[in-house]
Amino acid sequence: MIHSMTGYGRAIAELPNKRITIEIRSLNSKQFDLSVRIPSVYREKEMVLRNMLLQHLERGKVDLTVNVDLISRDVTSKIDPNVVQQYYRELSSLAAAMGVTMPADWLSLLLRLPEVMRQENETVSEEEWQCIEKAIEEALEELIGFRRQEGEMLQQVLTGKIEAIRSLLAAVEPFEAERTEKIKSRLYEALATLEGVELDRNRLEQEMIYYLEKLDVNEEKTRLAHHLDYFVETLRQGTSQGKKLGFIAQEIGREINTLGSKSNQSGMQRIVVEMKDELEQIKEQILNVL
């Protein structure tokens, strides 16, 4: 069963003093392309997160977002009294020298100056990180379930398109005998207009056979049918089949193009156009297959 590259997963980790929300989104991409938006305190774990997501998701444009909502905030920044006193002395001296009075609310002014607030380094405990890892795994499980569901729908669509091409291939057969007879009749009519020319019937038959063999499409039909069977077989093999299906679709396209180049008959050419239309829709859908 194939999987889609499109998916979404969300999970929440509850801690005594904070609520952490994990969101993971994925879209189609040729490679694994990860974008991470997490608080700075978790930056040291970014490589661990990358490896975890790569192991589970393999391919796709993936966005990981970690939002933290504080329930009870522990104060991690403190006022540096030495800095405040230094600013106050300097401002007082400057005010006296300029002959101006200090503002009434001078404390709020001082608190807005650089380096007054001293930030204490926040660390991630092992317990907190384990809760985050568990939430990420839950979000991944939900996203993979979404991918699986989308993959089932994609498989139905692709199978329907392949069967449509198979039906069109079967519709080619009635035109083959008619085409051969028309070619023979047209050649004989053209030769009948020649006057005073003696024809070697044996040589004519040999050349006729050679010409009709060049227009024969049985090999193309056989190869195309084989590629269609292989495509359906690959759909059922496993999850990571997107690139392989793309290669098979290219081979299907080659056989359809060759069939079209030999189809010097309007009915067959219309069928080939319809095959190409179905194949283009297949290629568009394959872009989203993992």
Written account of the structure:
The mean pLDDT is 82. The chain is of the alpha+beta class and 290 residues long. Strand 1 and strand 2 form a beta hairpin. The chain contains 8 helices and 6 strands; from the N terminus they run E-E-E-H-E-E-H-H-E-H-H-H-H-H. The protein is elongated, with a radius of gyration of 36 Å. The protein folds into 3 domains: 7-74 and 126-147, Ribosomal Protein S5, domain 2 (2-Layer Sandwich); 77-119, no CATH class; 149-286, Four Helix Bundle (Hemerythrin (Met), subunit A), CATH 1.20.120.
Name the helicity range: 55-70%
Helical/strand content category:
alpha+beta
**Looking at the structure, what is the overall shape?**
elongated
Largest sheet: number of strands, sense, barrel closure: 4 strands, mixed
Record field, number of beta strands: 6
Beta content: 5-15%
Strand order of the largest sheet: 1-2-4-3
**SSE series:** EEEHEEHHEHHHHH
